[in-house]
Design brief:
It comes from Gossypium laxum. The protein is α/β, with parallel strands linked by helices. Helices cover about 35% and strands about 15% of the residues. Helix 4 links the parallel strand 5 and strand 6.
Length: about 350
């Protein structure tokens, strides 16, 4: 009797483990079991759809065209607090889009840093936004920007050509994400910055980096605390961030309820696994993409940011002096959602 019982227990344990580790299938927009498609979309070369939103002055009347890449847990429906007067004065056209798996954009099971950058390029091509455009990457939305700059360099890190990326006119990385396992970071700097994070976030990022196949289970289990931002831990926000969050709670943005509608794994979980996974290049591989000053690259970092330690982005900008670094003393992670900071980011990006 012992052997059959042992076999049954083993089979049951394996079945439970499989179910615990395997994320549920996505609820793809427009599929029979999925949410409806409610946004304009373009079809990419691999068959996926990318949802987008246009704002600012009409595309054909714009002097400057800016693609905005949203961050973690956000979408194309984010609102940049730039005044209508500024947008009209500078004649800015904005192109927002849902990154893979977010909102109305199809999930990408092969999602990577590289694929995110190529989505931006293909979106710009499909919508024919012109020969030159700018990119703003916010928080975790800045990692496609980093790849974009590598591609713009024309260096064959991925074994393919990048001739189309010359179209980038400038880039701003706002409160940009950092990967604590980048080889370029000195051990004392990365260890110190990592130790400033809450313990539950340290463990979540370790799992994403070392054992991504366990990440869905880690984010679903109830035994240990996982990612603080999803648990509603407000300790990760600065005072200025809390004030912005309070304003948002009083006037929620339209469309935010659609962020995770295709599945939390396809949107939030994949975002973290790609960000904290093993990259195909190192930030120190970047060379100045605008050697003749035909464009500029900026980092905007809040000194009070408790999500992205300023020490890391300050270090990177010191090692890459062609990046124009702005450290805002009284700002936190949500610095671009204060109107004065947002307008400063826009003015410097297009007018320098």
């Amino acid at each position: 009797m012992i052997a059959p019982i042992a076999v049954a227990l083993t089979v049951g344990l394996l079945g439970w483990t499989y179910r615990a580790l395997k994320p549920p299938p996505p609820k793809i927009c427009g599929s029979p079991d999925g949410p409806p498609v409610t946004s304009p979309r373009i079809k990419l070369s691999d068959g996926r759809h990318l949802a987008y939103r246009e704002a600012g002055v009409p595309r054909e009347e714009a002097k400057y065209k800016i693609v905005v890449i949203h961050g973690f847990g956000s979408s194309k429906d984010l609102n940049l607090p730039a005044s209508e007067e500024l947008v009209e004065e500078l004649r800015i056209y904005f192109l927002f889009f849902d990154r893979s798996g977010y909102g109305d954009s199809d999930p990408n099971p092969s999602r990577s840093v590289k694929s995110e950058a190529y989505d931006v390029q293909e979106l710009a091509d499909k919508l024919q936004i012109g020969s030159k455009f700018y990119v703003i990457g916010i928080s975790m939305g800045a990692y496609p920007n980093s790849c974009f700059l590598i591609l713009l360099n024309g260096r064959s890190y991925f074994g393919i050509g990048f001739s189309h990326f010359y179209r980038l006119a400038g880039a701003s990385l706002v409160a940009p994400f950092v990967n604590y396992w980048w080889p370029c970071l000195p051990a004392n700097l990365s260890n110190d910055a990592f130790s400033r994070l809450l313990a539950q976030d340290q463990w979540s990022f370790r799992v994403a980096h070392y054992t991504p196949w366990l990440f869905y289970w880690w984010m679903s289990q109830k035994w240990f605390p996982s990612l603080s931002i999803l648990a509603g831990n407000m300790a990760i926000f600065s005072q200025s961030d809390l004030e912005i969050l309070k304003k948002w709670s009083e006037a929620p943005s339209v469309g935010q309820e659609k962020i995770q509608q295709q599945g939390v794994y396809e949107s939030l979980h994949r975002d973290i696994m790609v960000s904290y996974g093993k990259w195909e290049f190192d930030p120190m591989d970047l060379i100045n993409p605008f050697p003749n000053n035909e464009g500029s690259v900026y980092i905007w970092q809040g000194y009070e940011d408790r999500i992205i330690p300023f020490q890391v982005n300050r270090y990177l900008s010191e090692k890459l002096p062609w990046i124009h670094y702005h450290e805002v003393p009284d700002a936190g992670h949500l610095l671009i959602f204060e109107s004065k900071n947002c307008e400063a980011v826009l003015r410097e990006l297009v007018q320098r």
